[in-house]
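G., the chain you wanted modeled:
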Amino acid sequence: MRTVLVVDDEPRILEVVRDYLVEAGYRVIVATNGADTLMRVRSDMPDLIILDLGLPDRDGLDITREIRRSHTVPIIMLTARTDEVDRVVGLELGADDYISKPFSPRELTARVRGVFRRMDELTAAPTEGFLHASDLTIDLDRRHVSIAGRPIELTATEFDLLVALARTPGRVYTRSQMLEVVHGVAIESYERAIDSHVKNIRRKIELDPHNPRYLTTVHGVGYRFKADIDA
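Predicted structure as tokens:
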């Protein structure tokens, strides 16, 4: 049974989200503030975190940043903030997705299912080995990435996007197509999230993120993996 950590300081939201997720077959643990969240992450090792950005003691963006220092667990942000900058910053810090308040518990549950479905598909896939491009190595089975032997920590979403692009070097992916990779469906309002994920990947794998060697932009269209891949 997968464990989902739900973080929110509003009891009614915790109750509703917990009920929906338990009904969907997940074990649910909850936290109402930043300190409790970090303790739960360390002690319970959840498989996914649903994190409200507006907590009473600490900003959710700071919590995301701290979690990402040592964990790649998928994070779905909940936010009542209307400023798109906050959502983009959260994605750039390593959150995998966001959903705005007020939200549909059914939609949130569907997002959680989508994350776990992708994880299951990758786990069930036959042994695939490695992809190599210059000094970049992608271990498909262990979901590890390294540059010249140095390990690179990618979130689950960042890894999925990188693999999708690297498997077909030279092919141009639109943002909509990249969303289908990570969500199973293209959602126009979330296409901006792809830019944040790509920015994160570049920051981690490129020597000069502003002049990328691997993940290049095709202006007006989307992105492609530029280097030749040796399987």
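Residues 207 and 213 are 8 Å apart (CA to CA).

Shout if anything looks off.
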